[in-house]
Amino acid sequence: MLQRPPRVIAIHDLSGFGRCSLSVILPTLSVMGVQVCPVVTGVLSTHTGGLGEVVFRDLTDYMEPALDHYRRLNLEFECVYSGWMGSAEQIESCLDYFKSWPDALAVVDPVMGDHGKPYQTYTPDMCQRMASLAAAADLITPNLTEASILLGEPYPAAPLRQFEAKRMLARLSEKGPRLVTITGVEMADGHVSNLGYDRDRGEYWRVDCNYVPASYPGTGDLFASVLVGALLRGDSLPMAIERASRFLEIAVRTTFSYGSDTRYGVMLESCLSWLGQEHTLDRYRLL
Ligand code: PXL
Predict the structure, then answer these.
(1) Each residue of 16-54: pLDDT tens digit?
(2) What's the CA-to-centroid distance between 65 and ligand 1, angstroms?
(3) How far apart are CA 153 and CA 72, in angstroms?
(4) Which of 11, 12, 13 should be mutated for ligand 1, with most atoms under 8 A from CB?
(5) Which domains does the chain have, with CATH numbers?
(6) Do β-strands 105-108 and 79-82 pair in parallel, antiparallel, or remain unpaired?
(7) Residue 204 — φ and ψ, nearest 5°?
(8) CB-based contact 85:130 (threshold 8 Å)
(9) Residues with Cβ within 6 A of ligand 1?
């Protein structure tokens, strides 16, 4: 039995304003009782989603020496969790982190794009390398845009039918990861759902979300962080997907009610305590 909180290496950027990446990952995992060791891929004044010219300091040359230091310390980690990358070399460094803790849960949030398009800083080469990193993961957490990029397919032109959603999950898993989630999937039955697949158990899951007509940066980072925290604390995959989905629903609806600038992200500070409480999770369904 672990005599301490589970520990995760979180390889992400630190964006000062806009509530994404480490600014939200650290408090989220901490309130869930998980110790985070951040490995910062770069420092940005804001996220890259519409707040003007971003000041960016790349930290590619920090990642390998930091890894060497942690190895010298003989530290144990239960999870290595990667996200936004500032360069192609950083994606290669993440692989070295995965290899250094082969028993840790390797989680890749393949942050690359949204709304059917790659982010402006993601070159085709970076997207290709992200696909190789995803292949080395135990769990990947793409949104529908990123899932399409990983599969080398166009963004779906129409809502997905059940068999199409299952096929997409299975094909992502065939590339390597035994656990796959896809967020923000418009389903043919009218729901927007978060989906999951556990290859070892051969099970497909869905959690339907209450639709809100607004979208906020950082919600993918929050989803993946809650998922990671929940799995490390012993949730099953469907429970973890539901916990993450319900938390995002609360955060998005709270923020939407205030009509705040969507580029500023969700009002995490008002909602974080929900994650520290007990909840009955009974909204997940088999897909
Ligand atoms: O939330 C993902 C993310 C993380 N980091 C940076 C980003 C984004 C999305 O736009 O720009 C710097």
Answers:
(1) 999 999 999 999 999 999 999 999 999 999 999 999 999
(2) 24
(3) 42
(4) 13
(5) 7-266 (3.40.1190.20)
(6) parallel
(7) -115, 140
(8) yes
(9) 13, 15, 20-21, 44, 47-49, 84, 111, 119, 217-218, 220-221
Residue whose C-alpha is closest to residue 266's, from 242, 279, 283, 248: 248
Q: Which amino acid is at 232?
A: L
Is the sign of the CA dihedral 92, 98, 102, 105 positive or negative? negative
Q: Can you give the pTM of this predicted structure?
A: 0.98
Residue 17, both tokens: 């304003």
The token duo for 59 is 């930290």
Average pLDDT over residues 47-62: 97
Q: What is the DSSP pairing of strand 105-108 with strand 113-114?
A: unpaired
Query: What band does 263 get if pLDDT is binned at 50, 70 and 90?
Result: very high
Q: What are the structure tokens assigned to 269, written together?
A: 């500070």
